[in-house]
Amino acid sequence: MIGTASRTAVLVAALAVLGVLGGCGRGPGAGPNRVAAAADGALAAPAPAPVGPTSHTISITIRGGQATGDTGRVTVPLGTPVTLAVTSDVADAIYVHGYDRKAKIPAGGTISVSFTTNASGVFDVELEESKLQLLQLHVT
Q: Which of 47, 81, 115, 132 is the most exposed place for a label (fewest CB within 10 A)?
């Protein structure tokens, strides 16, 4: 009869051999998503996939020549998808300097400008015709 310590040693040795053999070739045990077995026979879950940057929405309303909402300096990390949502009481065009994004906005309308931050720095966002600065986008 085999004792508990001997059974554990045999199990550990068997798992070690399986681990070495399982890493060979491209069979079901190969690859980054395989499930590992611990010495006690418990299964360990694969590591979670990395999470990308979350989207950032910047909302601005223009009334009577004044901008309200997410104005001033807005900081977002490099690589972040950004959406500018702008509502205006006058017809004009939104322009994002440095990213060369432009969109016309009708009087009383709302537009969205979407892009991913791929350059770091500070970039002005303005109403192009009236030269009203809406915000500074600070990409770090």
A: 47
